[in-house]
Predict the 3D structure of the following.
Amino acid sequence: MKRMALMCLCLAATGLPAIAAQPWEEKTAALGQAGAEVSGHQTVEQLKNLIKIGEALFTARFTVEDGAGRPGATQAIVPTKRKHPVMNEFSRTAGVDANACSSCHNMPFPGGAGDFTTNVFVSEGFESADFDTTDPQFSNERGTNSLFGDGLVELLAREMTVDLQRQRGEAITLAAKTGQPQRVALETKGVKFGWLTAQPNGLVDMRELDGVDMDLVIRPFSQKGVMTSLRQFTVNALNQHHGMEPVERFGGRWTGTRDFDGDGHADEISDGDVSALVAWQATLPAPVQKVPDNAQWRDMAAAGEKLFDGMGCTACHRTSLPLDSLSFSDPGPNDVAGTLNVSQVKDPAVYDLSQLDWTKKLKRNDKGQVLVPLFGDLKRHTITDSGVDQLGNELLAQRFVDRNIFMTAELWGVASTPPYGHRNDITTLDGVIRAHGGDGRAARDTYVGASDEDRARIIAFLKTLVIEQAGVKQ
C-alpha cells in the first residue's frame, strides 16, 4: 500500500495521469478521465465521450478522498485563506453545502433547477470572510437556475458582445475622423442597451448604458447576469459548494501552491475536468414548447401565446434570438484572469453543437440563423418599484449591480422548474407575474387587469414551455 501511494504521488508530481480509482474506493472515478486539458476540434465521438465524463462529474458525490472540503480557504471567488479554523465543514451559509452539482441542479432532471430546499447563499460584500448567519444583511439567498440550453445562451452572449463592442469601436473611429461627438444607440439582435457617446479625443461617455457593463460584455449567467461563461460559473461553483478547487484558479499559477485549501489533496480539479463539465452543460438540450394532447389546453395555450405578446411580456421575454454559429469554443473569448482563457491555451477546445440531434430541430430564419427560443433578452432590468417590490428581496449589491436589478429570466422550461422568484419563494406562475415591478410593471398591470379567462390562457401557454426527458439523451 505504501508503494502504491508513493507511485501515485510521483505520477501527480510529474504531471502524468493518476491511476484510476478502483470500483470499491470512495473516490470519483471520472476525475482525471478527460486528461490534463482538452484542446482542438472535437469529433462526434470525442464530444460524446467528453459529455459522458462531464455528466459523471456533474452527478458525482465528491468525497474527502477526492479533495472535497476547503478547511483552509473561504468560498471567495478570489482565492482567500480562512481567518479562523473551520468548525463544521458543511454549512448552509458560506458552504461547503453540497456533495454533487446535481444535489441542487436536479429538477426535473440533472442539470435542471432546484426547489427552495436547495437555495444557496451568495455572500456578497462578505465573500472573503467567515460568517454563520443567513441574515440578508450578510448574504443574498438565491434559487438554483436550470442549465438546459445554456450552451446556446453563452453563444448568443458572445455574438452580442462582439456586436456591441464593434459599435463602440465604429463610434470612436467616426468621432476621431469628423471631430464631432458621436452618440450611438447600442442594439444587437433586436435588444437595446442604451447609448454611448464617443468624443473626438477617444474618451467614451457610458452614462447612458442600459442593462450591460461598461466593457459591453454580455454576462448571461447567474440571476444578476454577472457570470461570463459556463466555465467561470463551474470554477466558482466547484470551490464554493464542494471545496473542489480547480487548478486554473487555485493552483500554482495563481496561488503558488498546489493545495491552496490545505486539505492534503493537490490539484483537485484539472483543466480537463472543468472542460468535461463545460461540455456536458453546453450540450444540454434546449427546452421545448410542447403541444398539449388536451384539445382545450391546446386552444387556450395558442390564445395565451398571443396574449403574452399583446400584453407586452415579450418586450423582455423575447420569444427567440437569432444565433449565427453553433461552434462552441472553450475557453471562450471573454473569459479573463482566474478562469482559463484563450491567452493561456494554444488550441482551445471546439464543440460543434450542430452535430447534436436536438439542435437540428431548432427553427431557422430566412438568413439561416438559428432561432434560440429562450424567451429572454440577456439584459439586466430593474424589476421593482415603490408599489411592487417582492422581487427586490436582497440587501447587498452583487458585482456593482444594484440590488433591484436582475437579468431577465429565460422562460423556456419554466413549466418544469417551479417554484419561482430569485429565492424560490413564489409557488405559482400567476404569483411571479404579479410580483413584477419596474421595467415589468406595465405588462404586469395589464395582466392583473385582464379577465380571469385571459390570465388562465397565459398560464396555459407558459405551462407548455417544458424540459423534456427524451431530450436529455444525446
